[in-house]
């Protein structure tokens, strides 16, 4: 036993020395290519503040989290190229961060001990919008709010089908597929990407991925862009939107028939329901909030509701008419009086801890099922909620293989489960919150998709599986399938094949990155 301990100590010591050498080589390489004030080492007084600048969940900034060797705050594409080349040469991996909303924090932390650096793209965030042009170039570090504001002020009359939260990074949103309140009319975000620029594993810039590599272009539009390289800019298709749209929030309690109303809402999604209308439902405790965005005026919305959903009792006084830009500010910021410019605020949320999970529903749950969900789960824990995004419309009419996002034909809606707690990251409150979430998620298994139980890549969840590294030093395909087929279903193997070609050495990886699958 003594000789075994000696060998283990010797091996660990050598690994430590190798890590130190790699770290020194990486930092020295960076110093020759990137200004020193853009590289924040752990010894820097600004390291912690820069690391936390876009963190949305304080759970992942504790001392128990594996922290990066340094943060490269790139302000130019050449800095991205240098970071990749230095990382490859020295054996230091990169975690790529834009908005910081990734639910498991994998863009700035590592679950297992390893030497890595964060490549922060938040300074590369230009948005190029021209009046009357139905396309736009947006840099990878921009947020949805910055994109919305640029479109709405420079090019009114156009819109982009993004999500409901303005601080989400555009690159993370698109690389996971990107669902939102206007996807029934315009498709998901990834459907509206018409080109991209990417720095590949060799540190070379591919100026037009659509022209250079159609398989890679397919993969980054929903397959997890960080697995294949560093996307530095996206070219987007914009869509015409009515000058006036209508936003309505209607809340109903369980005593007011919330369970029956949610059940009726389920039946409308795949019917010939007007794609101009999206009703997002948030359920919490004993209440259901019906968040409505209608691409038109209130009068036409009310006629539509009387025809399809009179039970909700929507009235003229419920309507708020505004521009698309102001509607996105209202939805994101929660106030009808919120100025659109407020969406430029790149705030983060360090006030509470949070855990998320996801599901897809392909068969209506029905009133009895919703009655049980409310009474047995939601009403028993106030800080827990479910957010349901309807599919159907244009997004449901696209074949599942057109982009890596496969949750299309036959999908009624996506569920995001969210639970909050305060106090300590892993204390009693955390156990209570996550225990409640696990109970609800287990109960919902009877109502949601199965074989596989589908999940949304943008709501990353390590509880459904993590990568394992094989003896060859590469992520194993079999371990990736465990979680990958839940996110990507039949598209997972194609994603792994693309990965095996463009990054055969598996440099760009994390706990849920696409593993390389080599052909032949």
Automatic annotation (TrEMBL):
Keyword annotations: FAD, Flavoprotein, Glycoprotein, Signal
Database matches in InterPro entries: BBE, FAD-bd_PCMH, FAD-bd_PCMH-like_sf, FAD-bd_PCMH_sub1, FAD-bd_PCMH_sub2, Oxid_FAD_bind_N
Keyword Signal: yes
Transmembrane segments: none
Cofactor(s), by name: FAD
Entry protein name: FAD-binding PCMH-type domain-containing protein
Family: Belongs to the oxygen-dependent FAD-linked oxidoreductase family.
Flavoprotein among keywords: yes
Gene3D superfamilies for the chain: 3.30.465.10, 3.40.462.20, Uridine Diphospho-n-acetylenolpyruvylglucosamine Reductase, domain 2 (3.30.43.10)
FAD-binding PCMH-type domain segment(s): 64-241
GO MF annotation list: FAD binding; oxidoreductase activity
Signal peptide: 1-21
């Amino acid at each position: 036993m003594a000789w075994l301990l000696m060998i283990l100590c010797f091996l660990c010591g050598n690994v430590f020395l190798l890590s130190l050498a790699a770290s020194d080589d990486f930092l020295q390489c960076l110093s020759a290519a990137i200004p020193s004030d853009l590289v924040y080492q752990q010894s820097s007084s600004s390291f912690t503040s820069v690391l936390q600048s876009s963190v949305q969940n304080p759970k992942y900034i504790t001392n128990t989290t594996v922290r990066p060797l340094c943060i490269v705050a790139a302000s130019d594409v050449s800095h991205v190229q240098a970071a990749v080349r230095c990382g490859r040469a020295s054996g230091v991996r990169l975690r790529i961060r834009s908005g910081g909303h990734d639910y498991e924090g994998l863009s700035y932390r590592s679950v297992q001990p390893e030497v890595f650096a964060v490549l922060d793209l938040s300074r590369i965030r230009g948005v190029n919008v021209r009046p009357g042009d139905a396309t736009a170039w947006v840099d990878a570090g921009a947020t949805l709010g910055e994109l919305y504001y640029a479109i709405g002020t420079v090019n009114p009359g156009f819109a982009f089908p993004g999500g409901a939260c303005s601080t989400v990074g555009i690159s993370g949103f698109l690389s996971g597929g990107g669902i939102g309140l206007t996807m029934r009319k315009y498709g998901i975000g990834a459907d509206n990407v018409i080109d991209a620029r990417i720095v590949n594993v060799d540190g070379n810039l591919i100026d037009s991925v659509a022209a250079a590599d159609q398989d890679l272009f397919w993969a980054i539009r929903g397959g997890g862009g960080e697995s294949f390289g560093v996307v530095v800019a996206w070219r987007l298709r914009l869509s015409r939107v009515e000058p006036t749209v209508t936003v309505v929030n209607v809340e109903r309690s369980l005593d007011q028939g919330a369970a029956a109303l949610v059940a009726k809402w389920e039946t409308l999604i795949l019917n010939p329901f007007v794609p101009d209308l999206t009703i997002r439902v948030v359920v919490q405790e004993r209440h259901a909030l019906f968040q409505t965005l209608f691409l038109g005026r209130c009068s036409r919305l009310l006629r539509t509701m009387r025809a399809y959903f009179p039970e909700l009792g929507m009235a003229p006084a419920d309507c708020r008419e505004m521009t698309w830009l102001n509607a996105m500010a209202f939805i994101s910021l929660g106030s009808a009086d919120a100025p659109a410019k407020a969406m430029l605020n790149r705030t983060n949320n360090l006030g509470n801890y949070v855990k998320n999970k996801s599901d897809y529903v392909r068969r209506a749950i029905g009133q009895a099922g919703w009655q049980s969900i409310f009474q047995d789960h939601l009403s028993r824990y106030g800080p827990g909620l479910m957010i349901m995004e309807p599919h159907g419309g244009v997004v449901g009419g696209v074949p599942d293989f057109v982009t890596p996002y496969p949750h299309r034909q036959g999908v009624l809606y996506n569920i995001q489960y969210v639970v909050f707690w305060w106090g300590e990251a892993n204390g009693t409150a955390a156990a209570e919150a996550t225990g409640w979430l696990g109970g609800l998620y287990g109960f919902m298994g009877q109502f949601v998709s199965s074989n596989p139980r589908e999940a949304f890549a943008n709501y990353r969840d390590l509880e459904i599986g993590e990568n394992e590294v094989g003896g060859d030093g590469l992520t194993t395909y079999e371990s990736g399938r465990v979680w990958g087929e839940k996110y990507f279903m039949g598209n997972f193997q194609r994603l792994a094949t693309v990965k095996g070609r463009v990054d055969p050495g598996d440099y760009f990886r994390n706990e849920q990155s696409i593993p390389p699958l080599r052909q032949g």
